[in-house]
Amino acid sequence: MIMPARFDDVSLSVIMPTYNEAGNIVPLIRATLEEIRTHFTCRFLEVLVVDDNSPDETWRLAGETGDPGVRVIRRMSEHGLRKSIEHGVKEARGDIVLWLDCDFSHPPRYIPQLVACVCVGFDIVVNSRYVAGGEDVREGKGTWLQRLLSWLLNHLTWLMLGQAFRDYTSGFVAAKTGVIRELGLNGDYGEYFIDLIYRAIRKGYRVIELPYRNEPRRAGESKTGSTICDYARRGVNYMRTLVKLRLQGHI
Questions:
Q1: How many Å apart are CA 114 and CA 126, to the nearest integer?
Q2: What does the pLDDT read at residue 235?
Q3: Does residue 84 come out as left (phi exceeding 0), alpha (psi in the -120 to 50 range) or beta?
């Protein structure tokens, strides 16, 4: 982990897209705010919990944290990961926007290195499992399949799009808010990230990957799935995205 020097005058919006994360959301918010406030003096700081009307009332628990920096957006329609992130980016008031998975597989202790690199001039900064020092140590039911298929998908992406970037399915990222709004987000689930990074690199934005340790989910169940059939359904959209970007790259 890269520990940054202290930065002052940071303006940051953290987006937490959630669905049935009642067991994680409150400790995640607290850990995230603690990490940020330890390393940065913020001119502006907010956590946007963008919840898809979770049956377990994640939205209610998030609203009861008592921290004035927390805003809860309860989405009653048009659910989905990419749409939740997109909604958060639209609502963000910070100059820097950051988002992460809300199950602790993206540990908050790696947030400061993302923000610090944006502060020194990078446009998009990604925490990566597949650069030197990165690691995927998820364990538990179905996670061996997640790890294997994620690794295979990234290798296929390198073959089709090039190896300048390593973790095309990370989703643990900070960026200049204006850059994300200019690029926009396309896709349904995790393929949005492949599309975003590929287009950002092609347009000449300054993109960097930093190593992190992808850890096991603390509570709840994966939204990606746990069977070959689950991944096959997701895989169709990933393949469509790769083919589309590959064709664009040759135009």
A1: 7
A2: 66
A3: alpha
Confidence (pTM): 0.90
| pLDDT reported for residue 189 | 83
Burial of 77 (0-12, 13-18, 19+ CB in 10 A): exposed
The bridge status of strand 135-136 relative to strand 96-99 is: unpaired
Tell me which amino acid residue 44 is. F
Token pair 């399949």 is at which residue? 145
Tell me what pLDDT residue 246 has.
86
- Which numeric CATH code is attached to 7-249? 3.90.550.10
Residues of the chain with pLDDT under 70: 1-5, 138-145, 223-235, 250-251
Cβ(125)–Cβ(170) under 8 Å? Answer: no
Residue 12 and residue 44 in contact, taking contact as beta carbons nearer than 8 Å: yes
Cα torsion 245, 246, 250, 251: sign: negative
C-alpha pair distances (Å), 9 with each of 33, 37, 94, 229, 245: 16, 12, 11, 48, 38
Residues 62 and 79 sit within 8 Å (Cβ to Cβ): no
Contact assessment for residue 224 and residue 230, using Cβ atoms and an 8 Å cutoff: yes
Distance CA 251, CA 248 (A): 5
